Give the backbone structure.
Amino acid sequence: MSHAPKPNPRHFVTDEKAEDHARILANRLKARYRHLARKFRRAGIEAFRLYDRDIPEVRAVVDWYQGHLVVGEYVRLQTGPQWLPRMARAAGEALNVPADKIYMKRRRTKAEAEPRYPRASAGGKRIVVCERGLKFWVNLGGALDTGLFADHRDTRALVRQIAGGRDFLNLYAYTGAFSCAAAAGGAKSVVTVDRSAAHIQWAKDNMALNNFRGRAYEFVRADVEEYLETLRRSKRRFSLALVDPPSFSKRRGTGTFNVNSHHAQLLTNVLTVMAPGASVIFSTNHQRFDPKLGRLKAKRIVELTAQTVPEDYRNKLIHRCWRIDM
Ligand SMILES: C[S@@+](CC[C@H](N)C(=O)[O-])C[C@H]1O[C@@H](n2cnc3c(N)ncnc32)[C@H](O)[C@@H]1O
């Protein structure tokens, strides 16, 4: 006999209710697509968010990737297994996207959390999407994250704009999208650091896809804190850095990294490898981030969040972002 708690029938989303949700989502998607698609097409942007839990009852996110859709559900007990496929079908019909170009993702709540990066290349084929003249590989059918964080599109534009002639250090680089932006902006050198071999390979692929090859572009598979210590001893210095750590992560031998408790020390360590006059862009997507930047030895610290969260994101704190000038 099973001891699993029975779902409360009163809390279950009925077929009728789910039909209602599907209709609301379809209408909203059509309106958002009409509003966003043309201007993004003109700007050469092929990855953007169409629905960001706009209506609290319909707990979904829908992202557009060059004619493909990724439909996610913030999983809750109230919906059965059919809710997400139903929303995905409604989204496809609303935007004329065939079923083989629609991907479904269940975003689990904290209690049911599974690793955020199960395996970078777990299943699915990769496609290329463009963003303002740059190209990126994305994998829509693999892990929860696709390889490109569209919410950082305008942060990438900023890095591109200020990277000219600078030595750029990309920490927690993931698939190297910021490295591509810096290279496109004319960075003198780019060092891409991540501890995942799969992410470093993906970053190399993205740089190669944009024809950024050669000795100016270095890839380092390492723990960021350990690499910063190596850099500090080497006396090598940088003039621009991007620091975008995960909210939480397990570190070999030294317990867990928690951005709320550790960002001030991390940034202090980053500043020791920066040259005078350098800039550091720091970002986090911790949803309850408590910044403690007051003690950093910097000339100027400015929060950029209002500029860097793009208009297609309804959650205006999807990430928070600062520029630290030395
Ligand atoms: C939030 S993602 C960074 C997103 C990236 N900046 C972008 O916009 O595409 C976090 C990345 O940090 C890497 N990572 C986590 N802990 C790390 C550590 N201690 N040292 C190096 N990389 C780490 C993960 O492999 C992952 O690629």
About this structure: The chain has a mean pLDDT of 91. The two ends are 65 Å apart (CA to CA).
